[in-house]
Amino acid sequence: MTKVIRIQETGAPDVMEYVDVDLPAPGSGEVLVRQMACGLNFIDVYFRTGLYPQSLPGSLGMEGAGVIEAVGANVSHVKVGDRVAYAGRPLGAYAEARVMPADVLVKLPDSISFETAAAMMLQGLTVQYLFRRTFRLQGGETILFHAAAGGVGLIACQWARALGVTMIGTVGSDEKAALAKANGCIHTINYNKENFVERVKEITGGKGVPVVYDSIGKDTFIGSLDCLAPLGMMVSFGSASGPVPPFGLNELATRGSLFVTRPSLFNYTAKRDDLEIMAAELFGMVESGKIKIDINQRYALKDVAQAHRDLESRKTTGSSILIP
Q1: Enoyl reductase (ER) domain spans which residues (predicted)?
Q2: What confidence score (pLDDT) does residue 51 get?
Q3: How many Å apart are CA 266 and CA 249, to the nearest integer?
Q4: CATH of domain 139-262
Q5: Where do the CATH 3.40.50.720 domains begin and end in the chain?
Q6: What is the reported pTM?
Q7: What tens digit of pLDDT does each residue of 276-292 get?
Q8: Buried b (16+ CB within 10 A) or exposed e, 188-202
Q9: Which residues contact 222 (CB under 8 A, 6 or more apart)?
């Protein structure tokens, strides 16, 4: 029997159940992964609450790292004993072990621990596509990044520094501001004390920024548009405060012919070749020391409800993981 987290209905953290299941043998294109660590991300909250739908009863978790214990037919790029990591569908990372598609797995370098991998795959690959593909940063730009002290945010701080990009980051406390700055964020804005639109205009001399990366959603969307320079791009990649309400396209025209995109990691990694390239760049940044993954919270898998409460109440910083 294997311990996993299941939900019978959507709702508060208490809907998550710690249960025993029997795992089947891996089928064609599948492998059995014994998980050493599981990632904890805000997208898990979206699935738990029903903001992002799934069939019920259901599973949670999109990121993990471990060792392959069995391989089904038609799997060639990994084998039994390989160290692997992943970020993506299908849901089900909250588990001691799982049978899953092999095509979402990448081999994990020996220099990167299982815990580090579980803490960085989804968040690190997110920063990779945001900075290297959605709006490709060349160096020298000044950008706005919301939630700069979160798991994605701290990786973004370091990656921006490595690229020679001036990052303006919003945070919710002075402690989080210090943490973001320690990781490479040049300017921090405490949104509980300052108006982030006014501060961005001050920092940029009224010009605005060419790109805003916004995972907050409802509470920051319009303000983020106001921070953009003409022809700037709004990258809305999350909805921590709730989904962005409907708005008129003229809002973009009146602010200078702005662009808006709502990207998803799973579209960017849909092609195996793209996933390999993205993971290789992320691993290279970590192995070089340019990016350090801060695991500031560790929870036992059975304590996942408390982990979600801490995540939703903005008590966490950096990355969080679950230990099976």
Answers
A1: 11-322
A2: 87
A3: 26
A4: 3.40.50.720
A5: 139-262
A6: 0.90
A7: 999 999 999 999 999 99
A8: bbbbeeeebbebbbe
A9: 247, 251
Instruction: State the span(s) of the chain assigned CATH 3.90.180.10.
Output: 2-121+266-323
Here the tokens at position 16 are 């998550």
Q: What mean pLDDT value characterizes the chain? A: 95
Nearest Cα neighbor of 104 from 115, 90, 119 is 90
CA 251 to chain centre: 28
**CATH homologous superfamily for 2-121+266-323?**
Medium-chain alcohol dehydrogenases, catalytic domain (3.90.180.10)
SS3 173: coil
Within 13 Å of residue 212, how many CA atoms lie on the same side as its CB? 31
From residue 209, alpha-carbon distances to 201, 215, 245, 303 in Å are 9, 17, 23, 41
